[in-house]
Structures are given as structure tokens and as C-alpha cells.
Write a structure and sequence with these properties.
Layout (H helix, E strand, L loop, with lengths): L34 H5 L95 H5 L43 H8 L43 H5 L55
Length: 293
Amino acid sequence: RSMFGKQHESRKSTAPMYGFGSSDRSNMNKVFVTSEHAKAMYGKESPGPVYDTKSSLGRQESSKNNSSPLFSFGTADRFAKPAGTVPTKTAVPGPGTYGQPSSLGKQGDSTKQTSEQAGFGSSTRTMKEKVFLSEEHAKTNFGEGSPGPAVYNMKQACGKQADSKRESAASWVFSSEERFKYDYVERAAKVPGAGQYNAIGAVGSQADSKKNSLPKYSFGTSGREQRGKVYISADHEKSAHGMNSPGPASVGGKSSIGRQSNSKNPNGSSWSFGSARRFVYNESRVPGPGAYD
């Protein structure tokens, strides 16, 4: 184990470790150095001129200060007459202020009589026949309100009688039992037919433990390159020497021309074409004779 860092073995002492502190600079002022140093910090942690001075106007929250009186505009109506005084002409309602009830229709005032009202009747014309005029007139309506001959629902005399005063006649019905039903028909219906059985083939793997499965043969899935790895004999191995070794052109030889990556080989001298411009002259900036327009 390493001799640096924390030692897990109890017989070896762990060397002291030092690191950069993670405390903020703001905590530096909280460190107590000496009493003289602490006196120099008086007043630095006290709040500045940020006191909330209460206003001397309005209601005072402190019980030691008296609140000054407050004045406001009144909310009462102007020119209001005191109670018990005689109303003047200005307090009398105008001519259109009173709600005059109509003299037509039903009168709400008990001192006024409501006039008679006439309207259209709501009775239908069918009610006219029910009005009794005289006995002779009533005789002409005999039979108009009675039901006709086909209105009654006459109960038949055959079958079961719903009226308890009448006796129901005897009735016969056809039997619902099936004829010519024998036991072998029911048994034959439960027996499966000739093509219902699931016969298991004798070829392939046999699911029945009483039958032996025949051996199966198949083509191998191994590749041809695996054939060379099969060991036959020592003499046979000698014939395969060099088959898996790289050929003469497999190893990439480093070129001796140009820059050498091997530090043991010196780089040969190299030349290249210059990149400077050819035939560079100081052209005159003075315009020629035909340059002027």
C-alpha cells in the first residue's frame, strides 16, 4: 500500500494533511483574536440609520404618545329640517308625483265599486249537449252517449275462463316428449368420429415415454475456417507452418524519404518552391496620356 494518505494499518501513523480552507471571508470578522482587536470592531455589526421613525401626525400606536384630534367632512344632507318642524312648500311633492289608480277594471280601494266585466267563454262546443233544457229535448239525445255494438270486449267461451263464475272446459295438448329416442343414439352422439383423434407421428421426437425417439442427423453449422484449427498430428502441424504469419508485404516499411518519425534516423534535406511573387515592380501611380477623360 501507498505511504501517502490515510493509513489503514494501525501500526503505521497517518501523516498530517493540509488543504485550502472552505470558509468565506465574511466569517473572518467573527474570529476572536484579542480583546484589543475586538474593541476595534465596535459598531461595524450594528445597523446604520435605518430606524423606522413613526410619524407624529395621525393616530399614534404608542400609548405614551397622545393622538391629535381628527377632523373630516360631514356626510349629512344639507338644508335638512329638524324633526317636529312644519314642512315648507319646498317639501311638498309636485303634481306628477302621486300615483293615481285607474277607474277602469278592478278597484283596489274598498270605497270604490268595481264595474262589471264581460268576456268570451272558454267552454267548448261539446259541453253544449250536456246542458239540460227540457225532458222532451233530452229524449232526442238517447243513445248518443252509449257505446256501440263493437265496443264491448266479449270474453270467449273456449279455453281458460278468467271469470270465476264460469267453469273452464277441459283442454288437450300435444305432448312435447320426443319419439323414437333410444339410449344408443345419445351414447353415439358423445363418441368422437373417425377423424377426431389427434394421432402422434412416429417420426421425430416422441412425447410418449413408452416410445423411443429415433436418432436424428443434420448438416453441421461450423465454418470451413474451423477445419484448420483441428489438431491431427505433429507432422500435420508442420505442414501448416507460416500460414497464419503475415506476408512480406503486410509489414508497412517506413520510407527513408521525407521526415523521419524514428528519432534514430536523421531527416534528409528537403527543398521546395518559393511562394514569393515574381517580377514585382514599383508601378507608377501617375496616369498615362490616354487616361484622362
